[in-house]
Protein 1
Amino acid sequence: MNDPWVTALLRGRWVESLLAVTALVAVSWPLGELVSTRPWIGPLFGVLLLVVAAGSLVRMARVPAWLVLLAQVLALLSGLAGWAQQHRPADESALVAMSALVRQGIGTIQTYAVPAPATPGLTFVVLGSIAALALVVEALGVTLRAGALAGIPLLLVSAGAASGSGQALDPRYFLIGAAAWLVLLAQQGRSRLEEEQDGPQAAVSVDRAAAARGNHHRLGVTARVMGLSALVLAVVLPGMLPHLPPTVLVDGRSGEGAPGTVSFTDTLDLSQDLADRSNAPVIRYRTDDSSPPPLRVMSSLTYADGQWLPVGDATSGPFREPFLSPMSTLIYPESGIESTPRTMTVTQNGMRAPQLAMPYPASEVDLGEVGWTWDPLSEAMHVDSAPGTYEVRYHEMGALETLPEEVGAPPEPLADRYPPDTLVNETTEDGAVFTTTPDGMTVAMMYPDGRYETYLSDGTTVVEHPDGTLQRTFGYGGPNTLAVDPASAGVVGDLAAELAGDRTNQIDVALEIQRYLRSPEFSYSLTLADPVEGPDGEPLDPISHFLATKQGYCTQFATAMVMMARAQGIPARLAVGFLPGSRGLDGTRTVVASDAHAWPELFITGLGWTRFEPTPGQRSGTAPTYATEGQQQEVPTPQEVPSTEEPTAAPAVPDTTGGMGAGGEESWFERHAETIGWTALSLAAVVALASVVPLAGRWHRWRSRRGRSPAAWIEAEWTALVDGLADLGVAPPPAATPRVLRDHYARQIQPDAAARDALDRATDRLESARYAARTPELGTMREDVRRVVEWQRGRVTRRRRLLATLLPTSGRTQLGSLLPGRRPHPAAP
């Protein structure tokens, strides 16, 4: 290679650089599954080519490694700055643009679930993160020539991709990255052999055949071991890693069937995608109801910043009661509404405590020995532990041609039912004024701070604050059930008023909103539409975005109806739970994780909390219909409510696990998968730490041989012999000549004939390198040293061999040289 241009190109290590970034892109590719699209692919390749070109061009100039890294960092920042300025206002500086995109990207990560929409901010974060990781791998594997160390960030990125996606990593991604990494190691090995054979010692005679055989043998063994390890890790590790659940409607590794494996998140972020599409069973039950309602788990009355918030703490709160008292069970008899009692028997329960799934309104629950409390505000049950089986009795509203006239009528103030002159105002010592009726019932109250409460005929309270704002609550200090999201109030209010028209009955208004959302204008999709900019140039809020794009899943449909109902003065809340599932041949129903569902509940005068179904029929089945005096019609018999997908398992069969859920159906690996995963990660961390000193030793030996004179190479190999034998318990005598060392080692290790010959040759070559007028050839010096050390390794205990492998003297010396004030090893450059 006498052509200087060819030599310069090889010095740039273009091929190794491309292999390094290819390995990182391969192992990080699954991260793209967390986003709806991959708009960063083109910019990523462009930025990575800048990094590769900058590093390779600077390396061609024979400059220090830190200058190479500086050039690559500047190239990376330049590429990212150029992309950022293309997606931000032109008058912003590159630094301001990048900072704004990072903030937007972090906000998207915190707000959206997988697959999140590819906003410019999220695209920039992913682009910058992958490019920065590629720079780290390239710096370790190419600039610093530590290809083995470059495998550590590759493994960590691969593990992170497997954990973050919530599902097992496809082995192909791991194999592609591992293959690129192995080719990088092989390319480095060949380059080093060429440097050794064509480098500084080219002027002397070298036994190239012997050296090549030894190096090729070690390279082949290393490649085979690494290749086999990569294959095993690619198949085993992704399935063993504990997958971090994305922030979605259902939280946890769903559907395993055993008690306590699935629960709903306390907050429902409207900007998220419903990601859990598993067909694994969650609940199996039997019921005498031919068309059972959804299984309700929890509800929320407060919506803020795109999220539905819990009523209170999951296990305690001021509204907890030890008895079951749904409002509808009390209101039905008062309104003359007939209902049919039904029974549901759960044979397998996969819900995690404190949550429990059951139809609404339930009148009685048998949980065996499990303790429970009832929250009358959210009307949800909280259990102390997950029951394997339980029984629920609930009420099904009877089919009526029409509802009573008073049902759905706007509630009136209780004070309006009495002549004004019969009402009495009483003032308390603290200045509060009570308005009472002749029979002693309080119908209104004025507080000293100016708040005025009016009690309505439906049991709710209207609170008028001094600033003129109104609040509709249940009980004392409850959430405002008429609060409309401020960000979308204008859009929601106008649309609700248009749909309601001249209608005054709550049922009529609700059915019109339900009809509109179930119309062909809207489409059901587990993936949200791309962000839409509002008049101010910022992305629309989640509700306005849904009403504009008309695309979403159950949470979006239910939230939109809740807000439109509230805008029309109808109290409303969001309920979450499961669709009733699919019916097996024996009558047992199976609810799977993908049956997770959300629907609105409106507080209708004369009915109480009443379920509506705005989500399109292909997901939710037939919507409830309630006929009023103004819309006389026969109430249709509810149809079967289908699951999104039929379970892939065989038809449901009766429970044979003794009431302990599906735990008996799980394999040992399934039951302990998470423990195994964390154990594997811990072992990987231990292995990585244990590799630091040996890798440092290899780094030291490579540096001691690279770019030095043949005499220095021989000295470095002799140092490896001294260190290797010292690690194996044979310490050298102080200030000994080569021959004294030889005789000392011969007495201590008692070598066989082949090892003694190797020791003699190594000693003669060292003496010639130190004292002869002409430097000898390297010859088989390295193989002779290895033979002597291996002889002693075979004679010592396993513990000594392990210590020599994990804590070699060369590695400890190299690491010690990095400490302030420490001198490097004598053989180090």
Protein 2
Amino acid sequence: MRASLLTLALAFAATPAFAADAPDVQRVEVGNRISENIPAIPETLAERLAQYQNTRGASAAGWLADGSLLITTRFGETNQAHRLRMAGGAREQLTFFKEPINSLRPAPAGGANGFVFGKDVGGSEFWQLFYFDLDTRTARMLTDGRSRNQGPVWSRRGDRIAYGTTRRNGRDTDVHIVDLDGRSVPVVEREGAWFVAGWSPDDSQLLVSQYISINESRPYLVDLASGRMTPLYDRRRPAAYFGLAFAADGRGLYYVSDETGEFRELRYRELATGRTRSLSAHIPWDVTQFALSDDGAYLAFVSNEDGIDKVHLLDLRNGGEIALPELPVGLVGLGGFSADSRRLALTLNSATSPSDVYVIDLDAARLTRWTESEVGGLDASRFVAPTLIRYPTFDQVDGRPRTIPAFYYRPAGEGPFPVVINIHGGPEAQARPGFNPTAQFLVNELKVAVLVPNVRGSSGYGKTYLQLDNGYKREDAVKDIGALLDWIAQQPELDAGRVGVQGGSYGGYMVLASMVHYNDRLRAGINVVGISNFVTFLENTESYRRDLRRAEYGDERDPKMRAFLERISPLNNADRISRPLFVAQGANDPRVPASEAEQIVRAVRGNGGEVWYLLFKDEGHGFAKKSNADYYNAASMLFWQTHLLGD
């Protein structure tokens, strides 16, 4: 039986025990939702939230052969595929599944008339790949229906798809190639996590990469006729590699790597000589993504500069950078070049505007908005854009206090305002100022300030910063939250006596750890799909993830590391948590099993603490269905009203 199904069984086996251990638990089941000790949502709160919960965005997935755009957006419960034929045109919905879809990839021009996408069941992340035929308007499964499949990449001819799969043993991720009839053949079957990067122009070679950790990956060139694998990295100098792609002439590769410095640079490698050069050395920030035009004339790339995206366009014929029209300040997703290389699709998102699809006409240097997503009828001019602040923490760099970046959403008025600290997951991720309707509700409706820190271990600030929380340095990141509490106490407009903390996944661990170490300085905390014990987490997370997480947190099989992980785990320090806690979880979570939530709920309640508990039977690592997300958001706002504001 798959481990995710076992997790689901454990969730329901353990839930009734709460009532036996704590007779005052009020347990309610409604459809796929189980809640404990969560009061009924007041109608007044539901009405205030409704507009914020009915904002929506749209994202570009790529160009279809007829020149229309494939996009994702949500009209019902989940994100689905839509086609957009022109700027401001009607969104033609193509898929109508109960579950959200992902990994949309349109076939290249001249190939099949359709697209590939991924879909799981109930958030299990055991994605299956499907081909949607635009001629027949039907979808058919290409994978085995049992394994975990991801990262589809079309061949240049558009007749085959390379992808990663756990089909062989459920633990390792191999590379397969599948045709549109579902015939799948292995290309790389080795220990570890292997992913596809791209095909050569003649489809005779494949770029693949073995992912070791966020700090290290190992790219190879695979000859499909012989199976020979040629390494493209220096074994003596571990580095991270991302987004490898062949040049149009097949003579070289473009890729992103930190092989020569702190940041991830866009680089070019000549295959014949092995010589490399940087195309972004003048930008002291990470390059996060790039896209090549089919004719090899243009290369677009995005740099993440202190959390804000900047788009660059290179003319590969002469090496010069092309001036682009002014773009909104915010976050960018590259949607790819059109088949004729004359248009570039983008997804643009800002703190005050949900994601929308834009297109740049390269000949006219003109930006056109193709979608205008809804903001629930709200006055978008009232949305608050955060400011970037930096606060000192406990250690030093070059004789000066290290500073931690954070985004600060400040309500209108004089204060003093209560505060919610929102900690991102990962930990190898970065909080960025994208559109967040929940943050806007807190700031505008509840007059709560929101602080979103990027504690040590976050990406985007160089590989040294990224590794500052690894292994035995885990609690140094928690100290960064203590330093933020010190900073809050020094701000006259903030109320240091009313501070709450929330976060998901690894951010959920940070919530629990903060409540352990700073219990007396916090009012309450919300932990969503968070780790409560590193040892049980590592033992119970899905097998295909286990070694990847050991690279970050440490190997629990080593006695010394196991003792350390047990010592710092919030579960083993739950007696120090006396403030109200809200725990929310998906029953099918393959990353952080539901048992992590159940054991911290049981422990805190066993010490007399107040815990609200929420479990969705049809969700995994987060809440992808609108009705579930809406209920969680309403419950979390009620939690803050009750325990942070005292309303």
Protein 3
Amino acid sequence: MEPVCYTVSRFPCRIGRAANNDIVIPDNSVSSLHAVFALGPQNSIVLEDQWSTNGIYLGTQRVSQLAIDRSLQLVMGRVKLDLALDMADLDTMTAPEPDIAAPAPTFRKISIQPGAASTGAHSAATSPPDGAAASAVGYRVPLPAEPIAGTPAATITKLTGSGRQGIICPHCWHRFDVDEFLFIARHQSLIGDPVLGADAAQRFLPSRFTKEGNALDVAGMSCPDMACPRCHLRIPQAASEMPPLFLSIVGATASGKSYFLTSMTWDLRNTLSRNFAISFTDTDAVNNQILNDFEETVFLHSDEQELVALRKTELQGELYNQVLMDNMLINLPKPFMFTITPAEHHPQYDQVRQSMSRTLVLYDNAGEHFEPGMDSVDNPTTQHLLHSDTIFFLFDPTKDVRFRRKLSGGNDPQLSVSSRVQRQEIILTEMINRIKKYSGMRTGRKTAKTLIILVSKFDVWKQLLDADVPREPWHWDAASNTCALDVALIKNVSFALRQLLEQVCPEVVSTAESFAGEVLYLPNSALGHSPELNDTTGMIGIRPQDVDPYWVAVPMLYFFYERGFIQNVRPENRVRHAETPATCKLSGDIYFVTLPGLKKPLQVPLSYAGSQLRCPGTDMWFSITPGAAAESEHGGAC
């Protein structure tokens, strides 16, 4: 595959993995918004890193801001960029006429060579995950931007702010510069805000500051708290200093999203610190109060034998902020925010302290918000999907009629005849349609986001899965004094679960894989056991003493692994199985793998290339090398 070339003549020009960038590179080593080409003094071109995980390298030197005044070769993640500047524009830039603004320069070419980069200076941060190729064939989806012929300009979306100071509000997702922050007045007489109402403290743009950097309100009081200039909601200081990672949890009504979120955050507080030298703490206790209450109910209840339950997530109420914007009352979901930083005993603390220090922003919506017809201008509660780096879709087998037939005979109240069933692929389709509608994503294109299908309540259906699912898919790495994630094992479990879903509810698989280039299927159980029916209330509940979550942290660990926060098990420490000879043929983004004794070939998505997989129902193991794609027309050995 030849390098892809672009001409850029309008600025700012965004480059990254997300589909709403001007130049899209769908590689996991590239951040959602990785960098921005902006205009500097006298129309010079400046490349600015946007807090990317894997950085930008000029040779062996990581750069955060770089003047493009000559042809350069850069490395962005594991992708090589050749930048060639129009020399006529360069002459204009270096010797402009006095008092005359220089015309905007253009790039003669930006040549993008996917997967071509490998430098020792940053190999630890950008080493490709299992299944990622070392060449162009490693891409799971085609480049969304069309290669150009001639010199048409790229389409540019104008940003409010284009520099490294850009902030994305976790409440309304408005992007703004640091100097646009409003401050929250503290004097008791300064009450009444046009956006938040008569009882809220006033928000103001400061002109005076204390020596500590806090704003002074008109009454002369020091005001440390800041707010978004659009929705006026408070943004914690840590969230303004550390670039965000957005994560959305989607699922049908009563599918257990709140239980999953509660168990996941509780498990992460312990697992990340104990095993991976990563600190996971509340960014702000006020924003996380509801989730903290949930954790106390499930894991810190005073009476472990009492039957308890989490309250249902409502369409409105305490999980939402109501603000007045554009002369409309709008409900915005309250985000849960966590600060992620490497612990000081992290083996690469000095090198990764900046790239790993992030604010994780999570959203929990009522399932009804994802149903068709529930997306409205005054209720944009699911638009965080556009900004999410990864989406978790919670699939509940107890709500699927076909799974229920396979699980009949049990006494789990979730499988009773009276409990609700639902076609969950409709919720998934609605989610996909909203992302496409608001992002302008073209039909037939696939997103660069990783979509993780979480099949919940594993304790109820685990006998249906033909795979070994150990409680902890990670191993101690003596060389680094931290644990390493067994990505090969996780991929194999994902493949086995995909095969099960294809047999029981194939429309879920086809819908997910028509949208995302990488789809991971993971089992989990937020409680680890079946709930009980409360005879008094008629509602189901749980006893805290019985709660034993299973694989609730694994999806987030994989999310962190993709961003270089967690290492993979070293090749020499991986368990390898004897492989059965197989042949494979690539068609589109699916490998057709032929194994002895099978009547029809296995269908293996391109994202599994490089992983050793077990054929479900047999003892045959096989793997697909990424280079097999080059021989796809004639079929090649796997």
Protein 4
Amino acid sequence: MARKRQEAPHFGPHRHMKAPVEHAMHRKATCLRLLRYFREERWRVMLLTFIVAVSVAAGVSAPVFMSQAIDAITAAAYERVPGILWWMFGACALYAVLLFFQGRLSARLSQSIIRRLRKDLFEKINGLPLASIDRHPHGDLMSRMTNDADNIATVISTSLGTLFAGILSVIGTTAVMLSFSVPLTLLTWMTAVVTVVTTKCVAKKMGRYFRERQELLGQLNSMVEEKVTAVRTVKAYARERQVIAAFDQTADSLTKTGIRAESIGSSMGPLMNTISNFSFVVVTVFGAYFALEGWITVGVISAFTIYSKQFTRPINEMAQLYGQVETALAGAERILAVLDEPDEQREGREVPPDAKGEIEFCHVSFSYVPEKRVIDDFSLKIGAGHKIALVGATGSGKTTIVNLLMRFYELDEGEILLDGEDIRMYAPVSLRRLVGIVLQDTVLFSDTVRNNIAYARPEATMSEVRRAAKLAHADDFIAHLPQQYATVLQSAGAELSAGQRQLLAIARACLASPRILILDEATSNVDTRTETRIQDAMARLMHDRTCLIIAHRLSTIRDADEIIVMDQGRIVEHGRHEELLQQNGRYRALYETQFAGQES
């Protein structure tokens, strides 16, 4: 689907970046894309169409019976009146019953379609490259999953049947009116022309405001998600007033845009009612004249007064539904924009089960933003089973090296070899199974302690989980939890200390037993005493494994086989701890700064 995108700058793998502003250029393409989701619900659509058709036929036939009853009374044929009235009552009752089933079926249809749409969107988000996810604030993605999808569901459940019924009602009503009087039918159709012209004029302006409202709603959700997640930081720096001011600014923009959108949308109803009333007056005046001339009967006039309402009512309803449809289309455009993004590369062969874990970076260059390299001609060979530490100032590219090894991002230049083979030859999923990673920002899930540890190996036995927890020295504090390993962590472990959360992450890596181990500030949230306790556990975990350690706390990497000092994406020094201290270079400066108690 063609769309206009205004790219916002983004600088590396950070969570909260401004998403591209996207505008669909073709509503028809969006509608056609949505219609694909109706294919698996063909029987419901066909049944809904049948119910709508029968209900419209019942609704259209009722005025015919009323006209016949009036003409029978006028002609003094009173014996015919009861039978005609029974037919009219039956048509009205059938119409009411079918309306009930129409609502039920529309609700089931909408929920079934939205379920598949949400499923596709969730699978798509999970299949996107990390770079694509970084371009979307998480709150905006959540808004597309919830608000935008709900708007589509609302239109399908409340508006789809109305649109079907409106179209069929206009056709059926027109056919009956033509059988009664062609001139009166043409007069009624004149109001339809006025309605279409009015709708087209208002719709052009309405569409822009509805799209803008959905985008602002996504920004507001993103802001709320970010600030709620960082509420401790906000309070710690007493930034509540500034956060509220920023929220108010976005909320005010959303309010103003929403008022404009709803004002224009709500104006459709009064406009259509005015046109409908004008049509009623025209039909009444000209009908009376035609009856006096003997061209039509009094019963036809009464039927036409109802048909003029029946004819204009669907047009009015469809016009009033335009705002909902426009909102749904705006949401659909945003959802389809995500679905249109390219998937992460998944092809490739499986990593051999006997992989040794030798890693080599060969002249690797990478940039998050074109022409602004984060990694520049980086070359490094890590022998199987060796322990390599990466140190350097913030922004020197240490974490980026890990992201490239995990294939979260693809290289600009060079290659990364695993046992002599380019990692791009392997499927990312297979490559990542080979690697265990413990991040500085610990990620836990709102699940039991056992399931959090066993996240990498769900099939692990309870004894294996306990053994991993003991190895990471997490078993002690788990024993004091209310239900121990069956304790459900609330808010992703918010009730635990930062150190306890990190111990669970280390236990998870222990259970995974990977061939390659990555520790990204793995003990940064652990106090010195606890760090000392888990040193030999970490040593056992790293034994005979290829290890890549990112650390600011230099005391944790003294026994590394080689320490790599990075600056601006390049290696500026390398060697063992004692060797680097003797060189009196960048590493010694970092060491002395840290030894002096200052943050490096």
